[in-house]
Design brief:
The chain is of the alpha+beta class. It contains 4 helices and 10 strands. The strands form 2 sheets. Strands 2-8-7-4-5-10 form a 6-stranded mixed β-sheet, with helices on one face. Helix 1 runs antiparallel to helix 4 and helix 3 runs antiparallel to helix 4.
Length: about 250
């Protein structure tokens, strides 16, 4: 009930804010209605089964031999608890909280695959910033990397930490994203989770005059998915990509 009420509040607040700041440009032709006879003649396509739950934070303990430093808060995907969310974008942006810095992590890797995991859509290595905070990765605007409507995709983010002896240990989180068609009644809605998070985070970085309203919206958004402990963390933005494989 708490999450539902918060999501409703987020939707209302975002509608007001988007009107003030200027909503993200989007255009979509709404198809003409199909008469009832034609609908009856269309074959019934079974819905694609929803994928399994992912890992918003690293699964299991790192163990006694772990070399990744222990932090107050873990590496975390900015997603609902089941890591499932939607986008209307061909090239969406993913947000994460990292408690680590470039001095503590040798490298990071992000990849995204089709639901059956037989086709890799995109993979890139990256460097973390010099301070902990919320960072993002956006799929490049390349045909091979575009997400298709009605499809689920499985993403992974891995960090490789270093010890003083150059021993390596990796921690991984993973989740799911579904590309859906644009509809005016759900633009910038919690139903389209990945786009909503990116919109608010981007506005926080570029609209200091509206920071109080944006921060309130950001707070409600994170509370709705029980990420209250990340509300005050800095919103840093894109990581530095070092090697991409499209």
């Amino acid at each position: 009930m708490r999450s539902q009420n918060l999501l409703a509040s987020v939707s209302f607040t975002l509608a007001i804010l988007a009107n003030q700041l200027g909503s993200v440009a989007a255009s979509s032709a709404i198809p003409n209605s199909i008469n009832s006879r034609t609908k009856q003649e269309l074959p019934q396509v079974p819905p694609t089964p929803r994928p399994p739950v992912g890992n918003r934070t690293p699964g299991g303990g790192l163990g006694e031999q772990a070399v990744c430093p222990v932090k107050q808060h873990e590496l975390t995907a900015i997603t609902p608890a089941d890591t499932y969310g939607r986008t209307v974008s061909e090239y969406p942006t993913f947000w994460f909280y990292t408690p680590y810095t470039a001095d503590e992590v040798q490298s990071g890797e992000f990849s995204i695959l089709t639901q059956d995991e037989e086709t890799r859509i995109y993979k890139t290595s990256f460097e973390l910033p010099t301070e902990p905070g919320l960072v993002s990765i956006t799929l490049p605007t390349d045909v091979a990397s575009s997400l298709q409507e009605g499809q689920y995709y499985h993403w992974y983010l891995t960090l490789s930490c270093l010890s003083g002896t150059e021993a390596e240990n990796t921690i991984t989180i993973d989740g799911w994203i579904e590309r859906v068609g644009f509809a005016p009644d759900r633009e910038l809605s919690p139903e389209i989770w990945y786009d909503m998070v990116d919109y608010v985070a981007a506005q926080i970085q570029t609209e200091p005059a509206s920071e109080n309203e944006l921060r309130q919206l950001w707070s409600e958004l994170l509370q709705s998915v029980e990420l209250d402990h990340l509300i005050q963390k800095p919103v840093i933005g894109p990581v530095v990509l070092t090697d991409s494989d499209i």
